[in-house]
Design goal:
The protein is of the alpha+beta class and about 300 residues long. It contains 10 helices and 10 strands. Strands 1-3-8-5-6 form a 5-stranded mixed beta sheet, covered by helices on one side. Helix 1 packs across helix 4, helix 2 runs antiparallel to helix 3 and helix 8 crosses helix 9. The radius of gyration is 20 Å and the shape is globular. GO terms for molecular function: DNA-binding transcription factor activity; sequence-specific DNA binding.
Length: about 300
């Protein structure tokens, strides 16, 4: 198995677009895509049959009419067992596509991935009463993307906006238990400061990150930053740094050629034993067990 990072799934050719769409149809041959991760967000709609999705060390079963949200940087794999006719459509997009709504783009890029890691089951929306509408939205988006007619970028973007509006209007409580920033508005300047801190953590997780470093990046005292960060992200700063390191470790564990010691070093942990302890505390299983479960087909 070759582990990989998907940097661009745009299938239209030419300049990369901030979105893509595709579908998988099986009759009896089955389907499997190996563990991978990417920076874009994906919406997977199961039009027919059943699929198994592995993410965060757990297996989620997706049935006809279900909608799965796959957030940026999450390691995942998808399997449809042989002998089961199935069809699923995937729409992927860069969270910055929603940049006209800064709070929403922030939620998709940073807040939702953290909350999903804590409660993976919240990633699946069961909505049989809306299956007709969802099926139509996904089919129309796929058609627009595939045909790539004049102005299709606007059409695909509008479909993505419509789907995200429906998700947030009707299912935000399930996904985030009421923690959406739209419910608890944050001043744009403060949100920008938190975004800079999050970017700094993403860029420097391999290093020791000090309170003074984060204070300098945010242009505020550490005590003020820590309080603001917890109110926005619903977790302490130190716990979030640990989350980023563990998430990166999950990505590296895809590669069976990397040792646990190498992964510990590459993710900013001072010792392999401490890394194993923190990983087990966060994921409930050891890195070795996680890798074994992740790569199991």
């Amino acid at each position: 198995m070759k582990p990989y990072f998907e940097s661009n799934k745009n299938q239209t050719g030419g300049p990369e677009k901030p979105f893509y769409a595709g579908q998988v149809i099986t009759t009896s041959e089955g389907y499997h895509i190996d563990p991978h991760w990417h920076y874009h967000m994906e919406l997977l709609y199961m039009k027919d049959g059943t699929a198994r999705v592995r993410t965060h060390g757990e297996e989620l079963e997706i049935h006809e009419g279900d909608l799965l949200l796959m957030y940026p940087c999450e390691v995942h794999s998808v399997t449809v067992d042989s002998g089961i006719p199935s069809q699923h459509i995937i729409i992927g997009f860069d969270a910055e596509l929603l940049s006209p709504m800064p709070s929403l783009a922030f939620e998709l890029r940073y807040l939702m991935p953290y909350r999903a890691a804590v409660s993976p089951h919240r990633k699946v929306i069961h909505c049989p009463e809306e299956s007709g509408w969802l099926s139509e939205q996904f089919s129309n988006t796929l058609e627009e993307y595939t045909e790539a007619g004049s102005g299709y970028e606007l059409s695909v973007t509008s479909h993505i906006y419509r789907l995200m509006h429906w998700i947030l209007r009707h299912h935000s409580h399930q996904l985030l238990a009421g923690s959406l920033l739209s419910m608890h508005p944050v001043h744009p300047g403060k949100l920008d400061a938190i975004r800079e801190v999050l970017r700094y953590i993403d860029d420097h997780y391999q290093e020791e990150i000090s309170a003074s470093d984060l204070s300098h990046v945010s242009l505020m005292s550490y005590s003020h930053l820590a309080k603001l960060f917890k109110s926005v992200m619903h977790t302490p700063l130190t716990k979030y740094v640990n989350f980023v390191r563990i998430r990166k470790a999950e990505q590296l564990l895809i590669d069976p050629g990397k040792s646990i010691a190498e992964i510990a070093q590459e993710t900013g942990f001072s010792a392999s034993s401490y890394f194993i302890e923190q990983f087990k505390r966060t994921k409930g299983i050891s890195p070795h067990q996680y890798r074994k479960r992740l790569l199991k087909r």
